[in-house]
């Protein structure tokens, strides 16, 4: 069933996602601060809008995909934002990665206007967005999730309803916590193995085949073996995410002893100028701590 | 080619390994402090010995599989041990999980008697030993590894030469480091997700499908979801292993910021009486830190 | 020189501070949400006001002393707040303990109205406030500090200008960081010494006399020896403060490896129901981690 | 009462201590591997010996002061060591800083020969040894402590019996734990304050006057303000000590979450080439983590 969708935020992630919705047969009207991204969407069969108000006024579904909490507040809640112009009954799906608290604030503001919301952050990066193989973690009402499911299926391959408003963001935060820690411990192991004179490539092979195996090990061991840290997922972004998970865990009284230490190490990587490298460059921090030359 | 093998240490791991060598056509003479294990080996087609000296006197290859560093020193280096009775030229393979330092000490003592050694710790647990699907990480000379390879292939499916004497133990230590940290961060994520009101089973599904996925998540999420902590791999043993990796990393000047914190948390689990539970019971420690009832 | 002072926030700290200013000869007009505190100030020779506007309209100096960031924003920046009614040229001194960022936000808003500000958080607790022996850490212009110095001298014994706007809050945050860590490591030492069978009182005496000595050891060893945790300074408040220092350090790119771990342990104490105990009760957390009965 | 004392180990600490015993009127016979130190003792009124056996054969009290565990084992337990030549009933006082376990091993071996022991490590450094103002933490029997008290009073000003054999070492270990953590958090505070643009000298003054005050802050703030790290107490030695306290706490089941992190940071300082600097140089590690130039 074709839907009328407004898509706000056509960046590195948003643009290919919007195009994938066009390919799936939907009527997609995009808005972005830079016109070139709108032009690309139009070229792919979508439509452009001159403002958020213009984009959402006839929409059945609004999707927002912007960098961080302040942008979500700006785009949805502020003057000239989605809630000002959208019709009652519309479903607003925020796919940005932000704090659960902001998602819940958006949901509460929407309810007051008779608007429904889902928080639906993704993982999988630019490649996952382009190839429509994202993982999508969705918070909100089950009925709203069911309605949005066909749209999500046009964007990703793992689409899961994980709980009420904010739950999608909570799961995304947990994802970033686990990823950061799994990378950091792999980096600690690499420096330990190298310092001990072990054949690192052979060691990583055998480690990957047992209980120490992980997707991080599979995907990032090449970066570590070759000291090749082109992103990928930038440390600056993981730093933002560690702030989210630390705050969110604090808010619900959950202890994160490893998470707190990793948050410091990610911040340290950034302070050392590695913010634009792939998060596997946490290896460089372990090298610094171990007094090794950092290449 | 059938070899004459002496197998010292027929415990939970050693007995099925010795029997698998018999099945592969080797002449295996076992020694163990308790006679019942020797009887089991004999019943499976092996041979029994009355002492270490008796077991090793005609052996081409000696395999030792005992609990910890002092046992290895006792069985190989002490009076009445392997090196006292073995013939020059024999290959002694220690498959126990001990410190790299002790492996190197054994190797040096052996060289002085014209005896060759490999350190070849395993992962995979009792099930892996019985089913001959262990991972085996081997340190020592490449030629000795090549000679032993057919024996290892009778015991496991992933058999890798990772470097000189002690390197096998180093990789095993790295394995235990990564496993402990991956379990701990999964436990932190579980408590965070539950406290935040997320559907945990759904969340773990989506986490497992992305970059946060790991063998630990796949194999241990059931333990965590059901608070079912029958071992598995006991926290007491992981505590011993964290001591090994902490000491070994200190010896080579490698920083383990996460490893050091996890070592404390594993010790804390043991101090709280959880030593005989599976290592996935690190979850209970996060529950304690978070002020939750521990079931 | 007697000054006309408006004092907003007559709580546990504010009331005795306002009374000390009266004793020093100043004309102090107080406002508080509960009338009883205003009555107490009047009984001590001060004056009462019916609103913030009423209190500040003729003031030369305004002092605010409220619990946390939102209260400062409410009392100074919001509708009906200090900046709405105060005359240009007035000196507004916020003595609350809040984030440096909020202090800087207040300063910027004040400048826009021709109002001068100082941030001047204190340490020393209720007893220090009553006895006028507070330590006061002051951020802002040197000339404004010089003008306010006689007032501060009526409230405390250690009064130091530490830098520009926000610097007072930064130093207060550093103070709370050091205190939390010094308490926590003392607690770790206590459990270690007790578990090892040492005479704890004798040990703390000798430790206090050497390089391990600290004000925390002197003032808190009694709490720890007797497991007597009546506040003092509540863990709930220290938890708030660890949030401030963690965020502030993150904002300026300073690594806090110990600070991050302590923040988790303070949060854990609170999650375990110890929030209303003195911060020396961090000892109870070390007992929990060490599997000991917590009395 | 003049005693006949054998003093083994006349290094940086031992030589001035032996001389102080001479000054107090005792008959002191010294032994050291390098003759020059013996000559210095003789010049000060003491006596020299050609071997440990020679030094201890007529002694009422033997004092040992050597660098680490292996030296204590060598000097007391090994062939040619103290226990081989000393008379039954002699009091052997080991003032080295070693593990409690080795002190207990020495005590057990001595008991078997009818020899009494005390472990009596010191703090206060070379200056404290020269000026006879050491702190001395003593483990062993109360009667033996009472007998030795006059000797200790010739060496230090704070002399405390803290428990049975090994207790002196345990307290010394706790001392080093607290000192390392108090230095590290001061370093974290310094970088935080500097990054935030605070007047550091003023801030440290006000911090020192409140609950954040400590002997570490008083004695080490100059090092930190001036980046002047001439030892003092070398990081290499503190690294050795962190190994002792980590192991000792592990042995008694005491959790050291901060201690474990600090042990890593001390090791990291050493790995970065700062081992011969004063332990206040932990500041350099915080600078590295914070991406700052290390001067």
Automatic annotation (TrEMBL), chains A, B, C, D:
Transmembrane segments: none annotated. Residues 4-163 form the 6-phosphogluconate dehydrogenase NADP-binding domain. PROSITE patterns: 3_HYDROXYISOBUT_DH. Its EC number is 1.1.1.60. The keyword Oxidoreductase applies. GO terms for molecular function: 2-hydroxy-3-oxopropionate reductase activity. It comes from the Bacteria. Residues 166-284 form the 3-hydroxyisobutyrate dehydrogenase-like NAD-binding domain. It holds the Pfam family NAD_binding_11. Keywords: NAD, Oxidoreductase. The keyword Nucleotide-binding does not apply. NCBIfam families: tartro_sem_red. Belongs to the HIBADH-related family. This is 2-hydroxy-3-oxopropionate reductase. It comes from Kitasatospora paracochleata.
